[in-house]
Each structure stands twice: as structure tokens, then as C-alpha cells.
Amino acid sequence: MPELTSATAQTAQRRHVRVWFGSHVIAHYVADPEHAARYAEAMDRRFAGLKITNDPVPSPPAAALPLPSEQLWGTTPH
């Protein structure tokens, strides 16, 4: 199991609140759980009937893969 650092713990505790109009996000907010819950409640009052989601912010990948050192295509764009 990976070690939980303070930065990772802080990211894991953050929430992403979104207001949806159909398949379109019309408002978004990232905050700690308490503020995110308050924002979601306020948006629910303001945009009654729209979908409001309050999801955890995904943790960043442990390590991104390095870019390849070789050229990936044979010609340059014109």
C-alpha cells in the first residue's frame, strides 16, 4: 500500500462539486468536504431540478511515464 503523505491526504479529502444541465457542466467547485457540502446545498437551492454531484477528487497518478526518446513519426507537418 502506498504511503499516505500530507499532500496525498489533502488531495484525497478534497471534493469536486458540479452542477449539470443535461450532459453539460455549468458550474464546478473543488474544496474540502465541509465547504463542498455547503456549496452543493447552495447550488441545489439556486438550481432546483438540476443534477448536483459531489465526488472525491481522484488522486494524481503515482508517476507519469517518461516520454520516448525516439522520434514517433517520419515527417514533420507542412
Write structural notes for this entry.
This protein is α+β, with helices and mostly antiparallel strands. Helices cover 28% and strands 27% of the residues. The longest helix has 14 residues, at 33-46. The protein is elongated.
Topology:
Layout lengths: L5 H8 L1 E7 L2 E8 L1 H14 L4 E6 L22
Antiparallel strand pairs: 1-2, 1-3
Structure summary:
It is built from two helices and three strands; from the N terminus they run αββαβ. The chain is an alpha+beta fold.
Shape: elongated
- Strand content is 25-35%
- Number of distinct beta strands: 3
Q: Let me know the largest β-sheet.
A: 3 strands, antiparallel
- Which range best describes the helical content: under 10%, 10-25%, 25-40%, 40-55%, 55-70% or over 70%? 25-40%
Number of helices: 2
Overall pLDDT level: 82
H/E element string?
Answer: HEEHE
Output the strand order for the largest sheet. Answer: 2-1-3
Low-confidence residue ranges:
none
Based on CA atoms alone, the radius of gyration comes out at: 19 Å
Structural class: alpha+beta
* N-C termini distance: 49 Å
Name a few traits of the molecule.
78 residues; alpha+beta; 3 strands; 28% helix; elongated
